[in-house]
Amino acid sequence: MRHYSAFAVAREALRHHTGWERAWRSPEPKRRYDVIIVGAGGHGLATAYYLGKNYGIQNVAVIEKGWLGGGNTGRNTTIIRSNYLQDPSAAIYEKSRSLYEHLSQDLNYNLMFSPRGVMMLAQTQNEVRGYKRTAHANALQGVTTEWISPQRVKELVPIINLDGPRYPVLGALWQARAGTARHDALAWGYARACSAMGMDIIQQCEVTGVRSDNGHVKGVETTRGPIDCDKLGIVVAGHSGVLAEMAGFRLPIESVALQALVSEPIKPCMDVVVMANTVHGYMSQSDKGEMVIGGGADGYNNYTQRGSFHHVEETVRALVETFPMISRLKMLRQWGGIVDMTGDRSPILSKTPLGGCFINCGWGTGGFKAIPGSGWGMAQLMATGHSPLTEAFTLDRFAEGRFIDESVAAGVAH
Amino acid sequence: MSTRLPSHGRLIDRSAQVTFTFNGATMRGYAGDTLASALLANDRMMVGRSFKYHRPRGVVASGAEEPNALVGLGQGNRFEPNQRATTTELFDGLTAVSQNHWPSLDFDIGAVNTALARFLPAGFYYKMFIHPQPFWKHVYEPFIRKSAGLGRAPDSEARDADTYEHFHVQTDILVIGGGVAGLLAARNAALSGARVLLIEQTAHWGGRAPVDGGTVDGAPVDKFVEQIVSELETMANVTMRLRCMGAGVYDHGYALGYERLTDHDPDAPGPRHRLWRIRARRIVTATGAIERPLSFAGNDVPGVMLAGAMRDYVVNWGVAPGRRVVVATNNDDAYRTAITLKQAGVDVVRVLDARAAGGGALMEEARSLGIRVDPGRAIAKVSGGKRVKKVAICNQDGIGGAREDLSCDAVAMSGGWSPVVHLWSHCGGKLAWDEDRAHFRPDPDRPPLGADGRGFVVTAGAASGALALDAVLDDAAAAGKAAAKAAGHSPRRGKTPRGETTPEAAMEPVWLMPARADTPLRMKSWLDFQNDVKVSDVQLAAREGYESVEHTKRYTTLGMATDQGKLSNINGLAILADALEAEIPKVGTTTFRPPYTPISMGAIAGEARGEVFQPIRRTPMHDWHERNGADWEPVGHWRRPFTYLRPGETVHDAVNREVKNTRENLGLLDASTLGKLVVKGPDAGRFLDMMYTNMMSTLKVGKCRYGLMCSENGFLIDDGVVARIDEDTWLCHTTTGGAEHIHAHMEEWLQTEWWDWKVHVANLTEQYAQVAVVGPNARKVLETLGGMDLSKEALAFMEWKDGRIGEFDARVYRISFSGELSYEIAVPASKGQAFWDALIEAGRAFGVMPYGTECLHILRAEKGFIMIGDETDGTVIPQDLGLSWAISKKKEDFLGKRAQQRSHMTDPNRWKLVGLETVDGSVLPDGAYAVGEGVNANGQRNTVGRVTSTYHSANLGRGIAMGLVLNGPDRMGEVLEFPGTDGTVFKAKIVDPVVYDKDGEKQNV
Questions:
Q1: Which of B154, B606, B786, B971 has the fewest CB atoms inside 10 Å of its own CB, making it the most exposed?
Q2: Do B160 and A327 touch (CB under 8 A)?
């Protein structure tokens, strides 16, 4: 792997950048691998990367139906935070956030991780109480968060309207070391590093069946022929149910489209990420200058990765109220991604009823931030059979009633 | 030099002069000008700077596809960045400023990036700025952020001075685009009797056909447009709107129209933008075509313009963008520009036709006017910084060795035309590659599908790929009829107007000019003018393995600018296909997403802002509360008084006063916001037995019962008192925030699972005003008002009765959420204020005070009553809260029953409800956790419980709290430690949750 640096760019500039090599190889599939990961999104690639890096398992293929990073990894609003309430969530998201801090150096690919701070506004008494509870929990979980006053909110976000007639801002939960990163770069950086370790990333290769023998996985059928493996990881958010069915089990997952949009680029006016859950919308400004806006999930199940308008209206309405000056900005583009929704809105990282087959899915609306931690834990689970990061997120928990519900901080109005 | 011509200008009114400013300089134009045409008329060639290299940028197009001419418009509360000059109609007093430069447009420090361009190829930032790690946040990113963005942000305190609104319409047929194709399609559709909505994004009907020339049924196109518009205007079933863009097409025939009502006349009354939310049976997209630029070195210099756009400026606005123009083309259409320029008196220096054999009849016509045409020739390079100075020409079939320099001040380029397929594609319509015209066009066999499995979008005219006038009209006529038929109407037979225009020779695709341009030329050949993506960037992406068109786009930012690649995408993917040695259709396009061009956030938000952002729900006594010091708290869409502040009082004092008074004298609570759902029908009892954990079917008429509702997963979601009104009617009280979703929850089960049960549910929350009359004097005040017998014997605890209190018809529930003697009294909403007034008046003798939600909370916490949202959070089951008594053991089933039998739910080691008493009497922090020994496998501190409710009790003179603690009820007396977020540790003893009047003597008097 050619090392990336300012010197390398300068050297290449002298020959019109004709000397750059491929970021990742485009190999033909082999007949057999130790491990096959289905899905070359962020979570799949990170799983492969840490299998190689932490456990020396490098005879790995990552198989992708479309193009790598083309699902939710390339469609989200790039928020990275770990101020979660429940212990298992805080553990995996904080692991993830801490890995992000050094990931550009680790991968030698600039992911532009920007720990600019994330704030979650409290606009009802219930939210105040919920976020204060989260702050207490975070302190014991080793996650640095802070309850801040409306005045501090205004200092950090000059464009915010604190005194809206409907939902004045009562304070916020602030995580200074949270932030954003360049989403595509995460997939590309992992792909390049996996490829450099000798792993095969096979794009345009759809899995059409899972082969097993005596309750143990043997390999997969693909549009480019059968491929054998000892262990199989299914990491295909949006289509998890489809793959699970091939492997012979069912998932407690619904698939819905999550909506997002960006404005036209403007000069910097907002340096932090703001999430407003009462009115429902969140916004940050990308390094390119666009206001990146996340909204809600459509109210019906489907697989089409399209934008719908109703949530966009609700979201923009909420944000115009929160940041009045955006009224005269324009929406440049809206899109949707298909997210897996579990009953408790927490992910599944688990062994499955099929021996040697593991699944990583159910990240719902918040998977991007978890990618490094998810890959780290999933690799540990696949390599050793156990990971403290993933042990609460088993598939069994739904049968046991052992939910990890993060929606609780929002509570219910009394 | 670009100037106003003495002739031409079909859209301007030379008698109406208009004054405007650009970067502070006063300029003049005419009514009917766009800002772009007026700037060109004032010889303002350079109007902006590009995003990455800060290169000088001039107007390149004449419509929605413009990537360069973006300006900041207006001032103060009306300032708006990134407005396209080409679609901004000029008005008197318009103020525009250029963008993305410092200190000025002409002298921009950022332009140093141009000199460094070689070091800043596509994706350079992924390879640099990696070390040292802290530098990204503190050094590199701030620098990059500062140089990014286009227009400046509106002022941080700016409140948009304009208003916006939404229209909701249903129509049989929506026709998007009011060019000749849209007009004809609309007419043919409307003749069938179908309701037709026709929208056009510009201020004029007719599109570009009148500029392109030709005849319809022997008459000029303008005449045809005039006729068909007046015909449509007389049809009652047709609605027409100009300045209304088709912004997006969504599932099931849903579409958005974006109408700009006053952008061209800011002082006019009414909303600025109107968002049309349209549901159509069928949609006809007559959205025309967009011309492609040619990729040659220096194609981004101000003065290089699309040939069609240059023709528009001459014909529509009487503006010549140059005095000496070179035309470069691969098709016949550009000759129309050459001819138009020549006829307008502009010197057409040369037409460079990349086709070895040149063109057809139009070429001959140009030659006959004395224009020199060079077949097989190409532009090697355009020279000039802020405007075109000269063009070096070469053979198209070569590497770019220049043969000749031509002095000129403008270049018209044409790479062929691509149909506008955006709206067709938004909702899944597929495209086919047209080899002959080198463009993607809608594939009529793969349209967007509606709920009936049939296509709901039809294309018409150039949007279908039909470019010549005769073909356009034939296609549009058929499209209009087909849409009408598909919408259930019978189209009329009739003659299709016959279009005639000069036939064109075949075009030849030219993706790079010259075909084998060397690297230095490719590094100067722009694909995306705004984002500064060049041919060499796409080739670099391909070389590095970013082979998918989506990878290339994201790696290079091709097509990600505000024009969303309207000019750059096809050229870019052709370059990519070439680099990959693949066919263009195999490479495919990126995804077309709404909106077609950017639409204002204001329009999307509509009327809902400020007070009406979300409706405030008011109880009948709302205004009284407001007048009497209510400190409001939003609860759902309601507002409830948190407390009533008296002059000089703090919130804390007011709450304490209310708490003591209610315990000692008399308190009134406006409980109107509590949900009141009537459940009625022969199967209502059976239904409620499924909804609640308790048995409700056996409740006697006249009695009340406290009920719990769980989700399918067994978690407690709502609680409240249920009263049986008559044999088949129950009234279910819900929490304030729960009314709507519990109603919906009931309906969902009734409609999807027990659809054959005879039950109706109605939400009567707003039909009643409800007042809780609470405290030792409660009965006395009601007796003072007179009426029904409310003695202990006549109305026992947990009973209800209808009757009269004073002059009011009332339903009285003898229930208590405070532990006091308490009546909750419902009167018709219209009588609520009068009833409240009567209580206040009569209550004076008994020490009456209203109390708010905080007092309510404290009273219930003193009694150990749980509150949904405090003690519950979606993870708590009734068994955790000591509420097993409210779970029927007799019922076969209820929602949550099976879930509660799961192993984790029946685990004896769960966190359970207890009271918590601080050792020093202080108030425990809200949400604090009790810590256990050591840390878990992830290094997190182990916890054994948490605070769910915590208050200062004025009655007890100390803090009281409830919490969930691991095996709590078995650990009475144990002291737990609760660290605060600041490190302070609170110690609290586990006690019984009921800390006031344990035996319930006060409520049962």
A1: B786
A2: yes
The CA distance from A74 to the nearest CA of chain B, in Å, is 9
Q: Which domains does chain A have, with CATH numbers?
A: 6-78+189-251+345-410 (3.50.50.60), 110-182+255-342 (3.30.9.10)
Residue B240: helix, strand or coil by DSSP?
strand
User: For the residues B236-244, what does the mean pLDDT come to?
Assistant: 98
Which two structure tokens, joined as six digits, stand for B758? 């005879």
Residue B280 banded pLDDT, cuts 50, 70, 90: very high
Q: How confident is the model at residue B644 (pLDDT cuts 50, 70, 90)?
A: very high
Smallest Cβ distance to A269: which of B153, B545, B599? B153
Q: What is the Cα–Cα distance from A364 to A347, expressed in whole angstroms?
A: 7
Cβ-contact B11, B34 below 8 angstroms: no
Chain B positions touching A130 (Cβ under 8 A) are 927
Q: Whole-number mean pLDDT of chain A?
A: 95
Please report, as a single letter, which amino acid is at residue B561: A
Task: With a cut of 60, say whether residue A164 has pLDDT above it.
Answer: yes
Which value does ipTM take for this structure? 0.97
**Element (DSSP H or E) covering residue A38:** strand A32-38
Question: Which stretch of A305-314, B295-304, B978-987, B992-1001 has the lowest confidence by average pLDDT?
Answer: A305-314
Q: What is the pLDDT of residues A321-332, one digit of tens each?
A: 999 999 999 999
Identify the H or E element spanning B733: strand B729-734
Question: Region A219-226: what's the mean pLDDT?
Answer: 98
Average of per-residue pLDDT across A211-225: 97
Strand extents, DSSP E, B142-241: 164-176, 196-199, 215-216, 219-220, 238-241
Q: B623: which 2 tokens?
A: 């205004």
**DSSP H or E stretch at residue B976:** strand B975-979
Query: What is the C-alpha separation between A227 and A239, in angstroms, rounded?
Result: 20
What is the Cβ-side half-sphere exposure of residue B23, based on CA atoms within 13 angstroms? 15
Helix (H, G, I), strand (E, B) or coil at B768: strand
**Which pTM does this prediction carry?**
0.96
Tell me if B716 sits within 8 A of A394, measured CB to CB: no
Measured CA to CA, the distance from residue B47 to residue B58 in angstroms comes to 5
Is 90 exceeded by the pLDDT of residue A408? no
Sign of torsion, CA B215 B218 B220 B225? negative
Among B97, B519, B613, most A C-beta atoms within 10 A, so best to mutate, is B613
- Identify whether the C-beta of residue B724 lies closer than 8 Å to the C-beta of residue B703: yes
Q: Both tokens of residue A209?
A: 């069946």
Domains of chain B by start residue, with CATH: 13-128 (3.10.20.440), 164-290+419-493 (3.50.50.60), 293-415+506-513 (3.50.50.60), 525-586 (1.10.10), 617-864 (3.30.1360.120), 865-991 (3.30.1360.120)
Task: For chain B, positions 952-981, list CB contacts with chain A under 8 A.
Answer: 979-981
Closest CA relative to residue B904, chosen from A392, A140, A407: A392
